[in-house]
Design brief:
The structure is a homodimer. By secondary structure, chain A is an alpha/beta fold. Helix content of chain A is 35%, strand content 12%. In chain A, helix 3 runs parallel beside helix 4 and helix 5 packs across helix 6 (172-185). Chains A, B: Keywords: ATP-binding, Coiled coil, Metal-binding, Nucleotide-binding, Ubl conjugation pathway, Zinc.
Chain lengths: 391, 391
């Protein structure tokens, strides 16, 4: 009976809380006043410290977070506490006790949808942020159309496109769907991922037409120093750690803040190898023979824009792939397969900086060598997605 | 009136929650079963993945966290979700709305002591963890004695010493007090810190007698690429970001897990420069002329132990300070002061890896040159602490 009373009270408190949150006046202006009662004093101090020119601009931005799991939930919480203007959350999953080894969700939320539970917690943390949540799988046809619509019209101002899409999903299909949408919409986005063995992860910035998209090359992952075959066992429950996911969410949102508020260097690719505390970085340009026709179209548009741009007297250095020839960090990859065995079994392994490798390789297509353009397939989005689902 | 009803209900729910938590049976064994209702399935999977040999050993460890602020609270949450045996939390501060730009605490906890609020949240997250909290300032004489006692007798088993002390404090005096205690008790600990401009941080492992303690050398910090003079303005409210603090807590607890569960490489020093996404590492041995007499005593003990140890046929390479001579990452420190100006104004700047510098320098003592041993002062702990408080 005590448990029943408790559950009833909890429900009523939740209702009252929700009503109170809605009553709360949103602030007009972020205060920089240094008093204990000001939740923005330590953020506005970034201006006085010479780090950010106009911190309050954060209130004008809208960010979409796809996947509200171990990385996505912490990402959403960090952006909420930073005072982002609006967050749009997408996830079809429910909170489970099996998620409790990662930050954010609490046991009493088990059974709730992740977006519902997240919205409640985030509103409590910062009532100044606007939230929009979608409890569905973006990879089905109807939901994909709605997802595209919200990305292109969900911003705070005038139904404009969001400022950034963050991929915090845990599977290949969903990443490919986000990639397809962002290429078509010319939407800048950031990718994140954590390995199945829980001890590595990465973030990646994708500017359609300019930097490599998710279809331009096999996904880049952080090289593991453990037997690769262990990683590929089918049907094994993935491991996860709150540490690795917290670090990946932290470097992801840091990159978001640097990109939106224009400070520091925005990373194109940043990896995290937790076993050796090694953080490889790199940059990769879009592939002219990318399988995604929208990516190729964005590349054409980008080239035209670049050509039209008035030439500066001081030529900007063209960004090139950073390759560290020497093993400065003394890291050795331990694998029972040699590089030659790997290459023989599949496609060529591209030349990548120390510590970064590809998730898989693609065998050479007959008749297609580097530099050639592949045949325009002009497949419909439907056909492409049907193909993807078979992967 | 609705607000009053709400506050009453909240209080009652809190009471009931606390009672329920106490009723809950702690688990006997961590299950590795892959079901949605098992909070440990993704952690126990680390064994199957070949990362950790015996994950369940985590339940036997006790960790003390000193400072439950932006880094300490997230550190405690990560350890709680990982299923640590026991946590001992120290903090004298109260939760304020001005803390809401960092993870963990929520607005409704404003006014509560940080340790009380943290314990409530952490117990809700994982009732299998044992908690002990101390709402006091460790730097006063009485509290310091109690702090020493809890460090040396607070472990889960038989009143033994804790397995690790984590310093998550935000000021020099508290760090020095933890250093003093750990040197005297021969207690292994880890240091963490975040810069006042919110865009860099570090963690450091200190093994008394073996690696440099906090008094062996000026504290190492991550080199900022901004005007150093900005950083040293007095009375300016420090900036902070949930991203930087989340990353520092993540790399700290990752190092704790690697140290306790014996996997990967435990870092001696790992820095984080958020402006350039650069993560410098290094290692530094204890200084034979350290000002802390307990550090020097631990060094003697360590040397004796090393000498007594049977020599292995294959000699282990002595760990040396890692110095990267080349600027592999193309990072330039931008400062309006030249290195020469800095050196002229104070003491010598030691030879450190790219990206790491000292918080301050110590002018050469007259008559004391490198290699000489300084006069044994044999000051009492009380005298030392009185001196420290004047700093």
């Amino acid at each position: 009976t005590e448990k029943l009373v408790f559950e009833e009270l909890k429900l009523r408190v939740r209702e009252l809380e929700n009503e109170l949150i809605k009553c709360k006046q949103k602030i007009d202006k972020m205060s920089a006043e240094v008093v204990d009662s000001n939740p923005y004093s330590r953020l506005m101090a970034l201006k006085r410290m010479g780090i950010v020119e106009d911190y309050e601009k954060i209130r004008t931005f809208t960010v979409a977070v796809v996947g509200v799991g171990g990385v996505g939930s912490v990402t959403a919480e960090m952006l909420t506490r930073c005072g982002i203007g609006k967050l749009i959350l997408f996830d079809y999953d429910k909170v489970e006790l099996a998620n409790m080894n990662r930050l954010f969700f609490q046991p009493h939320q088990a059974g709730l949808s992740k977006v519902e539970a997240a919205e409640h917690t985030l509103r409590t943390i910062n009532p100044d942020v606007q939230f929009e949540t979608h409890n569905y799988n973006i990879t089905t046809m109807d939901n994909f159309a709605h997802f595209m619509d919200r990305i292109s019209h969900g911003a705070l101002q005038d139904g404009k496109a969001v400022d950034l899409v963050l991929s915090c999903v845990d599977n290949f299909e969903a990443r490919m769907v986000i990639n397809t949408a962002c290429n078509e919409l010319s939407q800048i986005w950031m990718e994140s991922g954590v390995s199945e063995n829980a001890v590595s992860g990465h973030i990646q910035l994708i500017i359609p037409g300019e930097t490599a998209c998710f279809a331009c090359a096999p996904p880049l992952v952080v090289a593991a120093n453990i037997d690769e075959k262990t990683l590929k066992r089918e049907g094994v429950c993935a491991a996860s750690l709150p540490t690795t996911m917290g670090v990946v969410a932290g470097i992801l949102v840091q990159n978001v803040l640097k990109y939106l508020l224009k400070f520091g260097t925005v990373s194109h690719y940043l990896g995290y190898n937790a076993m050796q505390d090694f953080f490889p970085t790199m940059a990769m340009k879009a592939n002219p023979t990318c399988d995604d026709r929208h990516c190729r179209k964005q590349q054409d548009d980008y080239k035209k824009k670049e050509a039209e741009r008035p030439k500066k007297v001081v030529e900007q250095a063209v960004e090139e792939e950073v390759v560290h020839e020497e093993n400065d960090w003394g890291i050795e990859l331990v694998s029972e397969q040699t590089d030659e065995e790997l290459q023989a079994a599949s496609g060529p392994v591209p030349d990548l900086p120390e510590g970064i490798t590809v998730a898989y390789t693609i065998p050479d297509k007959t008749g297609t060598s580097e530099g050639e353009t592949v045949e325009e397939t002009e497949q419909s989005l439907e056909e492409l997605m049907a193909q993807m689902r078979k992967m």
